[in-house]
Design a protein that fits this description.
With 403 residues, the protein is mainly alpha-helical. The chain has helices at 3-31, 47-50, 52-67, 70-75, 79-104, 107-112, 115-147, 150-202, 209-229, 245-248, 250-265, 268-283, 286-299, 301-310, 313-345, 348-357, 361-402, and strands at residues 37-39, 42-44, 235-237, 240-242. It has one domain (3-402). The strands form 2 sheets. The protein has a two-stranded antiparallel sheet. It has a two-stranded antiparallel sheet with strand order 3-4.
Length: 403
């Protein structure tokens, strides 16, 4: 085989190998080594492990800024369904409290509080609860994001995962795109290799092979990255319809991102448990009792007048004590029910998937590129470095053939 024939065959093949291999190695170097490693005096570490705090913060801000917030979780609750779930326990507590109140009254007073009055009082209680819940939720929506540092929670979880688990998550979400970068690195490498053959045929300057290797490594990585995002919208080129892989798969990627976030990062039950810890201590005793009494006097003045006439000051104070005691006993169970029902009501994965899938393509691109911008630069840099190394190997091979 002549030197020219060897050149025609070997250069495109080797450039294809360079393009593929540099992309494979560059992607691996995003994640590995996970721990600092000294090689020839150099301290090497994967991009993601090295910049994990920065990555964790960025990802947490994206999830809580664009995908979901604590206040939105509260806004999406079905309050009627929640009240129905609470009703059996509220009924039992109401009956217990009613019986205790009767024990505090005289015979004449008890005679006035018959079955009909009891059921009317129960019905009024539920009417008030049903009308008060939306207002209470509105108050909580205003305060919720300030009470719960959702972004901080997500950031801490990502840090806790560590580089190994994060690598698995990234491959779950964008494994196809990473493989695309590897394969198209080889394709672009062959194309550039054919151009290189033309150059070498006209001017056989073999010393330029390492330089060409660097160019191939950098350009193949860069082009593959660009093809992930562009064109944003389907574009006809002859018989072909071209579109960036991320825009084309936005719905699928949205579903994968949302499933990861809902499974590993944002747990509705955990969020509502934190809200419970913030809310119950300040809602169970004085505030709730004062509000209930004020509502009765405002909306049902005749009932308040009858209660004032029926009960003496000692009995009224005793009634407040009984009510406070029962509310404190009831609060943990109510809280548990609210947390359980709320967590089941909210399909966070579906909510987030819909929101991500409906993002404008430019915003979707900004989120992804903003998250991996630093990694993109490293991919191109490592591609050039590894390509230059492969070019030196290529030069050595050709020198052996000529000798």
């Amino acid at each position: 085989m002549t030197a020219t024939a060897i050149l025609l065959v070997s250069v495109p093949v080797i450039c294809g190998v360079i393009g593929w291999l540099t992309n494979v190695v560059a992607i691996k170097m995003i994640f590995r080594p996970r721990e600092p490693l000294k090689v020839l005096g150099l301290r090497l570490r994967g991009v993601l492990p090295k910049y994990l705090p920065h990555f964790a913060r960025q990802l947490a801000e994206i999830i809580t800024g664009d995908f979901i917030s604590t206040s939105e979780m509260l806004e999406r609750l079905d309050l009627d369904a929640l009240l129905e779930k609470l009703r059996p326990r509220l009924d039992a507590t109401f009956d217990t409290l009613w019986a205790e109140v009767l024990l505090e009254l005289g015979a004449g007073q008890r005679a006035m509080l018959d079955e009909e009055v009891r059921e009317a009082a129960r019905q009024k209680l539920y009417e008030e609860l049903r009308s008060a819940l939306p207002e209470f939720r509105r108050e909580m929506v205003v305060r919720a994001d300030g009470m719960i540092d959702l972004c901080g929670n997500v950031e801490r979880k990502i840090m806790h995962f560590g580089p190994g688990r994060l690598e698995e998550i990234i491959y779950d979400i964008a494994g196809r795109e990473l493989r695309f970068i590897e394969i198209y690195g080889g394709v672009f490498g062959v194309v550039i290799g054919l151009l290189q053959v033309g150059v070498l045929t006209l001017a056989p300057l073999y010393w330029e092979l390492p330089v060409a290797g660097m160019v191939v490594g950098a350009i193949t990585n860069y082009l593959a990255l660009q093809m992930l995002f562009y064109p944003r919208d389907p574009c006809k080129v002859g018989p072909l319809t071209l579109q960036g892989l991320f825009p084309k798969r936005q719905t699928e990627i949205a579903r994968a991102q949302a499933e990861v976030a809902a499974r590993d990062l944002i747990l509705a039950e955990e969020i509502f448990s934190q809200l419970k810890a913030e809310l119950l201590p300040q809602q169970a005793e004085s505030a709730m009792l004062e509000r209930a009494e004020a509502l009765v006097r405002e909306r049902y003045p005749s009932v308040a007048a009858v209660a004032d006439a029926l009960l003496n000051s000692t009995q009224r104070e005793r009634l407040r004590e009984l009510l406070a005691t029962r509310l404190l006993e009831l609060s943990p169970e109510i809280a548990h029910t609210i947390i359980s029902v709320s967590a089941k009501q909210l399909d966070l994965a579906a909510i987030m998937a819909d929101k991500i899938a409906s993002l404008p393509r430019l915003r979707f691109e900004q989120l992804l590129r903003g998250l991996f911008k630093q990694e993109e630069l490293y991919l191109v840099f490592y591609g050039a470095l590894l390509g230059g190394t492969m070019g030196l190997v290529q030069l050595a091979g050709l020198a052996l053939v000529h000798s």
